[in-house]
Amino acid sequence: MMEPVNHNFPANRRGDLPHARLKSASRSGHGILNAAAFVAVAGVGLAEVLDQTPYPRLMICGALLLVFAAGLVINFGHFYRPSRTLFTAIAVIQTASAIGVMVAGASPLFGAILFFVLNTVIAVGLPQPVALAWGAVPVVALTACLLLRGERDWFSTVLTFSAGFFAFIAFALALRQAQTARAESQQLLEELTGTQGRLREMAVLEERQRLAREMHDAVGHRLTAASVLLEGAARLIRGDPDRATRMVETSREQVKEGLAEIRAAVSALREEPAGSRPLPEVLRALVDVFAQASPAEVTLAVDDGLEPDTERKNVIVRTAQEALTNVQKHASASRVQLRLQMIDGAYVLSCRDNGRGPGSRADNGSSVGGFGLPNLQERASSFGGSVELTTAPEGGALLRLVLPKGETHG
Fold this sequence. Notes:
Elements: H1 11-14, H2 19-25, H3 27-50, H4 55-77, H5 84-104, H6 108-125, H7 128-134, H8 136-148, H9 154-236, H10 241-268, H11 279-293, E1 297-302, H12 310-331, E2 335-343, E3 346-353, H13 372-381, E4 386-391, E5 397-404
Helix pairs in contact: 2-9, 3-4, 3-6, 4-5, 5-6, 5-8, 6-7, 6-8, 6-9, 8-9, 9-10, 9-11, 9-12, 11-12, 12-13
């Protein structure tokens, strides 16, 4: 029946609270209030009987008390439901009933007791300004009844009951705020639980994407190198069997390293290709494998003292792998230059070839399906860096990684 009001809480939060949750949060408090209200009504009826109210007036008071109690049944059964209009109309009828008991009963104080209940119910169900204004109604009615009956100490009586009326209103307002805060806490807990679930799903998805990048960048490079080596060995097996044997052995090592990387990625989900070896040594190993698999002349230049942290080292190694793999697969180059240097506080890795430029390559310079270059860009961007594949000034392709410097290892 009652709809929670917005004067104590931000509208964007209060409006989000379902009525069912507010009703559930307030059942215990309303149950106590419900029982107390009907005890008060029964007590007023019993007081009228014991005070030997004349029969006609007793019947009127009884009927008015039944109307008041019926209003309680309806309103208590509809706490926090949408129709505030019906609740207000019933409250008006109950107010009239309570005033009628004050007028027709043995004492105005009996009817005034009903307002302790009614003011509490109104304060729970209607906005605070309305509840406070409604609290003045019994004060006026009680004052009028006492004056009409010639009560001499009417002022002290009215003062005492007025304090009680507004104390009950304050209690009801505090109860409503506590119920609303509890409902909001429940909603926040549910939202937090849902957010935690979504974060777990995102973490799983991110780990899957990371694993896919590792499989492509690491294992893909190994298998590509092995494939090229085996193709070369097949052509040389008759004319130059010694070199063919070396190429087959190198391809076997590449396959073994690829299998090791797969096992490490699946078991630990965190593969660090560079390991503890110095970065120049890792890059030199990549270049040596490329030199055996490709007829192109390859050179490597690394500035002295460059040894980034492990994460950045992995990015640099993966970029070098992808760059050399693309040259093997697409460039048809005769010269390749791989260089790592420090420029303006950033590691700069460049791979330059004199083969076909990016625009003439079947997959625009990235690996199959365009997966390689986006992977490199994603890796670099996680450290505030970038990867660009452009046409070199003298022709061919230029892959350039710029990776801001982080903490380094001694």
